[in-house]
Amino acid sequence: MTDKNSSQQNKNIAAQLTARIDRLPVMVLPLSVVLSLAFGYFIALYDVIDVGIAFSATSLKYTGLTSSEASIVVSLGLFGYIPGALLLGYLGDRIGRKPMLMTTALLTAIGSLGNALSSNFIEFSVFRFITGMGIGGDLILVPTYLVEMVPAKNRAKYFNLVYIAGWAGLGLGPFMASYIDVANPAIGWKVIFLVGATLAFIVFAIRGHASETVRMLALKGKIDEAEKVVKDMEEKAMKKAGVTTLPEPTVFNFETKKVDPFYVFKNPKYRVRVIAVMLSIFFFYFGEYPYLTEFLLWTSTVHSLRLLSNQITLYYGDAGIATFIGAILLRAVIDKVRRPILTTISYFVGMVLGIAIAVIGATSANLTMMLTGFVLANLIGVGWSNQLNYLNGTENVPTYARATSFAFSDGVAHLGAAISTAIILSIIPVLGAVTTWIGFQIPMVIMGIILIFVLPNTIGKSLEEINEASAGV
Questions:
Q1: What is the pLDDT of residues 374-400, one digit of tens each?
Q2: What is the CA radius of gyration of the chain?
């Protein structure tokens, strides 16, 4: 009985501490924490795209891999996302966000370094899988940490602010990697992987100085430490906002139980939300990842483009900057329009229309048209969709299972990426390039529409109001 009362008391205190964070007028996370999260996400997104450039027609022959082997290596990295997300996400709920964020950075660093030193198919495969595990976990734990440590008001804008730096990985990453690759194809691919490894080791060190989230500290009984963090945030917020007092926190009362994170699937409301989000991300990855990792490889098989591989690689890299710009533009609407509606728009405008234009341009050898498609796909499709997916996955589940449920959604969803990257090059000769590339994008739009009817409005609301207080344990 004592343990039960203690657990209930800790959870009540956690709700109070969280409410105190939600009423803050500004975000006051320490700069070191913001940088460690943003920098780590930069690496994750940089890695997503660098493998496509490292295995492009420009440098593939220097890696010692064939086109089919390179495709398998890419897929194995994506398959690594699944155990990485599920295992590290679950441990993030059981042990804590901070130690698992350090683990993800270390795995990414080891995998990237190993790929830079790989000389055969087996080595590439093993280290790519390790990298995938690290990235899979990072993509779960970074948004989980963020939504738990920023105020409810303008939560998505604060979320977006940190992610803008991350999107630079998809914007500046391909730009930098493409020029490295073209400058010296024989060793350029190695340098691309080494850059990722170096950055990951730096992030590992920085995250060691970050604090655990207030929720996790309170739920683990570290009340004094949690109180100290919140009090420090309150003092900094008042100073930053130029006020002497803060409004009274609104604490939402809700039932609590000491349960395993997977208990979330016994609640029908959460179960429907998690499955719907998982399917939307599954089909998004099904369409997005072939574009990110296999598009350049596909263009090397188009006869009319074989003499233009360097130019196409540079165009593809240049267009990556649009991803960074898109993340900035999203700030104007992210806290004004419901997340599922924005998600559906980004799926259709960015992925369907953008990739359609790029493919039609490629098949007609119209490089200007292809570049236009690249820009649209990166600006709206990649620049908006990923971030909206992460908000959908982390805002609509309870604290005790936030990392686990999003790990399930994002981890299982990466099967879509693994499947599509493994089969798309063999399907294109059968169905045709335009039909295949566009067909891979359509299902995500259908799921986006379904999300509009499944997910609640989360704008300006506390996580407890959205979940525990309205949907239960």
A1: 999 999 999 899 899 999 999 999 988
A2: 22
Cβ atoms of 334 and 160 within 8 Å: the answer is yes
| pLDDT at 7 exceeding the cut of 70 | no
Q: Write the pLDDT tens digit of every residue in 420-451.
A: 998 999 999 999 999 999 999 999 999 999 99
Weakest mean pLDDT among 330-334, 412-416, 440-444: 412-416
> What is the architecture of the domain spanning 31-210+261-471?
Up-down Bundle (1.20)
Check residue 167 and give its pLDDT: 67
Q: What is the 3-state secondary structure (H, E, C) of the chain?
A: CHHHHHHHHHHHHHHHHHHHHHCCCCCCCCHHHHHHHHHHHHHHHHHHHHHHHHCCCCCHHHHCCCHHHHHHHHHHHHHHHHHHHHHHHHHHHHCCHHHHHHHHHHHHHHHHHHHHCCCCHHHHHHHHHHHHHHHHHHHHHHHHHHHHHCCCCCHHHHHHHHHHHHHHHHHHHHHHHHHHHHHCHHHHHHHHHHHHHHHHHHHHHHHCCCCCCHHHHHHCCCHHHHHHHHHHHHHHHHHHHCCCCCCCCCCCCCCCCCCCHHHHHHCHHHHHHHHHHHHHHHHHHHHHHHHHHCHHHHHCCCHHHHHHHHHHHHHHHHHCHHHHHHHHHHCCCCCCCCHHHHHHHHHHHHHHHHHHHHHHHHHCCCHHHHHHHHHHHHHHHHHHHHHHHHHHHHHCCCHHHHHHHHHHHHHHHHHHHHHHHHHHHHHHHHHCHHHHHHHCCHHHHHHHHHHHHHCCCCCCCCHHHHCHHHHCC
**Cα-based torsion angle of the residue sequence 49, 292, 328, 458 in order, rounded to the nearest 10 degrees:** -110
Report domain extents, the chain: 31-210+261-471
Residue 202: burial class (beta carbons within 10 Å; 0-12, 13-18, 19+): middle
